[in-house]
Design brief:
Elements: H1 22-31, E1 60-61, E2 70-76, H2 83-94, E3 99-102, H3 104-109, H4 111-119, E4 123-126, H5 138-157, E5 163-164, H6 173-182, E6 186-188, H7 202-212, E7 217-222, H8 226-241, E8 245-246, H9 249-254, H10 268-277
Helix pairs in contact: 2-8, 7-8
The protein binds nickel (II) ion (NI).
Length: 279
């Protein structure tokens, strides 16, 4: 029986880690095979997926509340002229859809790759135009970075992004409020950071991502590092073997499970029992 090692992933700039808990192991084992219908190849187009039960307001997510073994693979900082097409080939061969947090200036440089991302069923999302830390650009800079990126993505691919990821994970209350309120974009962080930008080698990246997977997990990687691309086939193979399915971030959000409504202010003895039962 495999013994899970402690958390392998450490945050880059913000507090991210691969939170692997014992309860996840139980879910993996009991849930194996239950996501057969969720493998992207057999899925309808994104627009045909089940809609959220209630209108959703933009929010920040490090992961998506979910008991089903589904993860989102996400790739930042492309499109890269050589590596992103290689990655797209791998994803296509494996019938997996991912989410690409693209840099606006790279979309302008490689529009045909951005169009390929969308045409092959992946999600394309906003990672700013010049990749600054949004906490240091001021209100006008924040507006410019997000708007110009949404525009170039929409003009190039015909797809308007619905979520974003802040470069370096750099965010604060002011930046978050502007993104959610003024731009209507979800802020998507991650539940597992394999630190692939330090180029630790494909095997290490693979192991960290596989060990860091959890139901509703959002796995961070970058399609600008060769070792990351090299790791992806093994990541997909290992996660499929554990019973995981793959979804784009928007698909994951649409499948999110909300906690049962809390009993509203029940009297003390009854409330204590009921509340513990739903947690
Ligand atoms: Ni980035």
């Amino acid at each position: 029986m495999k013994i899970l090692t402690p958390v392998l992933c450490v945050a880059a700039l913000s507090v991210a880690a691969c939170a692997q808990e014992k309860s996840d192991v139980a879910l993996l084992r009991s849930g194996a095979g239950s996501t057969a219908g969720l493998h992207p190849q057999s899925q309808p187009a994104e627009g045909q997926l089940p809609a959220p039960r209630a209108p959703r307001v933009p929010a920040q997510y490090n992961e998506v509340p979910m008991s089903r073994p589904i993860v989102a693979l996400t790739f930042d900082d492309g499109p890269h002229p050589e590596l992103t097409p290689q990655l797209l080939d791998i994803l296509r061969q494996n019938g997996v859809r991912a989410t690409f947090y693209v840099i606006g200036r790279n979309v302008a440089a490689y529009p045909e790759i951005a169009r390929r991302i969308v045409s092959e069923g992946h999600e394309i999302a906003n990672h700013t135009y010049n990749h600054p830390a949004l906490t240091s650009v001021g209100a006008a800079g924040l507006q410019r970075e997000l708007t110009s990126t949404t525009q170039i993505i929409e003009q190039t691919t015909g797809r308007r992004p619905t979520n974003m990821r802040p470069p370096y994970g750099a965010i604060n209350d002011r930046v978050r409020a502007a993104i959610l309120r003024d731009h209507g974009l979800d802020v998507i962080m991650w539940s597992c950071d394999p630190l692939d930008w330090k180029r630790p080698g494909a095997q290490v990246v693979r192991q960290r991502l596989v060990d860091g997977a959890k139901p509703g997990g959002i796995l961070l990687a970058h399609d600008i590092h060769p070792g990351t691309i090299e790791a992806v086939p093994g990541v997909i193979q290992d996660l499929k073997a554990k019973g995981y399915g793959f979804a784009t971030v928007s698909q994951l959000l649409a499948l999110r499970e909300t906690k049962p409504a809390q009993p509203a202010q029940l009297s003390a003895p009854a409330a204590a029992g009921e509340q513990s039962a739903v947690q």
